[in-house]
Here is the input.
Amino acid sequence: MFEAIRRFAAAAVAMILLALVACDLWISSFRLWWERHSLTCAIAASLLLLAVAGLIVDEVVARRQRSERSMSVAVQALIVYGQARRAWNTVMTVGDSEEGSPGALIEELRTLASMLLTAAPGLFDDPLARRFLEEVELFSATVFPMALKHQGRLNEDDRAHLESAMSQLRVVVEPLFMRIPNADRALLGGPD
Here is the structure.
């Protein structure tokens, strides 16, 4: 919402600036009025210059920074996704075999919580990463209570709920995964 308002304000400032320049070039009475009111002209010019610097230049710089950070944000999201997947695997295997143990389960969940706290500030500025962050937080809110309640076997409804939550997380991380060059995707694992 704030970004849309900022873009609208930048476009409005640019249009006002263009209109003033056009009027100055083609309407002589307009030009004469500004010549007779030099202080008003100086103040208006200073305010427009400040608005251009504050809105348009800031928008260009912010967009460039977002594009430069997009791959590092994607990699960070994939690292968090990998931990969420490991926590999910541990929850699904505890009680099914000798692989999973309640101690390993608690450790995986702690690691996921720690990663979420660490990664959240970096993921928050990017809209796709923010959507992923919201989804992984919902996933954690689903996994934590089930895992702690059922330190043994999960019933079929819980398994289906966890499967659904994990598949939704896969869908949300996919656009972030696509930002990474093809050569590097195999190194990072990915949604599957």
